Amino acid sequence: MKFFLDSALVDQVEYALSTFDIDGVTTNPRHVQVSGKPFMTVIREIADLVEGTDKTVSVEVNPHFRTYEEIVPEAEKLAAISPNFVIKIQCMESAFSAIEALAKKNIRVNCTLIFSAMQALQAMRSGAYYVSPFIGWKEANAEDWRGFIEDVVMIRDNYDFSTEIMRFYSRSNACHSGPND
Fold first, then answer.
1. CATH number, residue 93
2. Average pLDDT for residues 4-13, to the nearest whole number?
3. Which structural domain, as residue segments, surrounds residue 124?
4. What's the structural domain count of the chain?
């Protein structure tokens, strides 16, 4: 099991790295906005904190980008900042071709906002490094999130994908992933 901090507050990230030796960080533009700093400043500061380690930082492309032509250049720009970065892309039809193109360039992708096992399967088939099933939403809407995760794990294991599954829990800043989830 791996432990990640879902934040863009640099002092929080630094504390979690030194105190809990977390395995990585996930961010998004909303978290960065809360920090009060410019997006590029925050992600560069976080990149500096994990430089020289194997810890990953999921950095999301602009969530308003919906097309392959918007997503891929932004992802390449972000990935060039740090070898620790995993590019977070929202699960949608155009994301699958973007994931495939980025994987061919050895750019790791975290496909996020996954609401179904079929979306997870397609993200894995496309070459996603992580898939992030959206458990909190399912739980909040009284949907079966446990069966959902079991299905995603079964798909990954049956097809022998190397993709890691990142599970997010509702009402929490903590998440974890790993091959045994």
1. 3.20.20.70
2. 95
3. 2-177
4. 1
